[in-house]
Amino acid sequence: MTLTHYAFSSSYFMSFLGLIFYRKHLLSALLCLEAMMLILFISLCLWGLILASTVFSAGPMILLAFSACEASAGLALLVAMARTHGTDRLKNLSLLRC
Amino acid sequence: MNPYVLSILLMGLGLGTTVTFASSHWLLAWMGLEMNTLAILPLMAQHHHPRAVEAATKYFLIQSAAAATILFASSTNAWLSGQWDIQHITHPLPTVMITIALSLKLGLAPLHAWLPEVVQGLDLTTGLVLSTWQKLAPFALLLQISPEIPLLITSLGLISMLAGGWGGLNHTQLRKVLAYSSVAHLGWMMVVMQFSTSLTALALLMYVIMTTSAFLTFKLLKSTDMNSLAMSWAKTPSVTALAPMMLLSLGGLPPLSGFLPKWLIIQELTKQELGLVATVAALSALLSLFFYLRVCYCLTFTSSPNNLAGVAPWRLESKQISLPLATSTSLSILLLPISPAILSLTLPLF
């Protein structure tokens, strides 16, 4: 595994752990999700550069467009949750247990 | 909902699954999965009450994490092998990561904890879309990747069957019962996937038909609770007579059509010398059968002179179109005698 591959693999796993183990706010989970998407964007750019292949040059832009849509959907859900539950704290997400 | 917005969302849902079915590149498959997620989120949150928003938030976080993991695993495979083809994943690590991420998307145990809560927070129509249509695209991807570690697939299937059976035992909310039944059926589909992808597709098709019938029945009876099923004899006696048949078909009893996938899966497992897996699968079907029987009991055996569990409802005329319910209930009860015809149609395809 090259150094570049190790760098973006470990940073992806760090953000994924940040998404899984988030503590208080939903916004921190959305931030970790955005970090994951950014790392994937960087890895797609680097893949084309290191393998010297231009056939997939549009890939990072497509990923960026879709991850922007997903981020805006996440923020809309954050606003909806602030409207219905009052905050974005995760302990409040307990209505569906019973 | 505004009909223009609703039509755009439904077309987005259709397009997302179609794009994933038609893709041979992992980025395109990921795009189709993301389109499905984004299109169903407004449908989930359309009623703006706290349970719907909570269900939509949990669904969004789970599906985005799973889709990002799929893309990370496929980009790892691209780094290691130089190509993005779906059917040519060579390295075992990306294969395992993609399998686990797709099982998180589907709701296979041990990654099934989000499914009952999310289905509980939705109305019955959106729950139907979630349980049937949203399962098609991840399965299209799972059927194409060749499993590197057979133990992973078999154990995902077995744990799903047992978790779906045991988890659904102590619930009174019908949507949670249907969510656990979905987990159990997904387990049946997974356990045979490495031997015969056409049997997985057949099991998926039968599951879609039976779950459609179940959700549409509960929508017609306007009941989300087992107690409110008790008055269904007053609303529509014919549905009260046929719904137990459909629920027993979900449980996999012969001579109903739900028996067909279970029978063929156990036959295939026995042929592949996995007799213990087949035995555990058959015994775990008993667990699911218990809670289906409990729903049948609430439908049929709680009428006078026994005590009634529900309150007598207003008998208003139902405006639901009855053709989908009639079609799916007939198919979920009567398909077993023509099973050679069904097998000749589905087996050569996959």
TrEMBL record, chain A:
Pfam family, one: Oxidored_q2
Organism: Oryzias latipes
Domain of life of the native organism: Eukaryota
Topology of the protein relative to the lipid bilayer: Multi-pass membrane protein
Keywords (A to Z) from UniProt: Electron transport, Membrane, Mitochondrion, Mitochondrion inner membrane, NAD, Respiratory chain, Translocase, Transmembrane, Transmembrane helix, Transport, Ubiquinone
Coiled-coil positions: none
GO biological process, one term: ATP synthesis coupled electron transport
Family: Belongs to the complex I subunit 4L family.
Keyword Membrane: yes
Catalytic activity: a ubiquinone + NADH + 5 H(+)(in) = a ubiquinol + NAD(+) + 4 H(+)(out)
Protein name: NADH-ubiquinone oxidoreductase chain 4L
Lineage: Eukaryota, Metazoa, Chordata, Craniata, Vertebrata
Places the protein is found: Mitochondrion inner membrane; Mitochondrion membrane
Function: Core subunit of the mitochondrial membrane respiratory chain NADH dehydrogenase (Complex I) which catalyzes electron transfer from NADH through the respiratory chain, using ubiquinone as an electron acceptor. Part of the enzyme membrane arm which is embedded in the lipid bilayer and involved in proton translocation.
TM stretches of this protein: 6-22, 29-50, 62-82
InterPro entries: NADH_UbQ_OxRdtase_chain4L/K (IPR001133), NUOK/Mnh_C1-like (IPR039428)
Protein encoded by which gene: ND4L
GO cellular component terms listed in the entry, alphabetical order: mitochondrial inner membrane; respiratory chain complex I
Enzyme class: translocase
E.C. number(s) listed in UniProt: 7.1.1.2
GO molecular function terms attached to this record: NADH dehydrogenase (ubiquinone) activity; oxidoreductase activity, acting on NAD(P)H
TrEMBL record, chain B:
NADH dehydrogenase subunit 2 C-terminal domain segment(s): 289-343
Keyword DNA-binding assigned: no
Record field: catalytic activity: a ubiquinone + NADH + 5 H(+)(in) = a ubiquinol + NAD(+) + 4 H(+)(out)
One GO cellular component term: respiratory chain complex I
Main location: mitochondrion
Keywords: Electron transport, Membrane, Mitochondrion, Mitochondrion inner membrane, NAD, Respiratory chain, Translocase, Transmembrane, Transmembrane helix, Transport, Ubiquinone
Transmembrane segments: 60-80, 92-115, 149-170, 177-195, 201-221, 233-254, 274-293, 325-347
The enzyme's E.C. designation: 7.1.1.2
Similarity comment: Belongs to the complex I subunit 2 family.
Function of the molecule: Core subunit of the mitochondrial membrane respiratory chain NADH dehydrogenase (Complex I) which catalyzes electron transfer from NADH through the respiratory chain, using ubiquinone as an electron acceptor. Essential for the catalytic activity and assembly of complex I.
Protein name: NADH-ubiquinone oxidoreductase chain 2
Organism: Oryzias latipes (Japanese rice fish)
The gene coding this protein: ND2
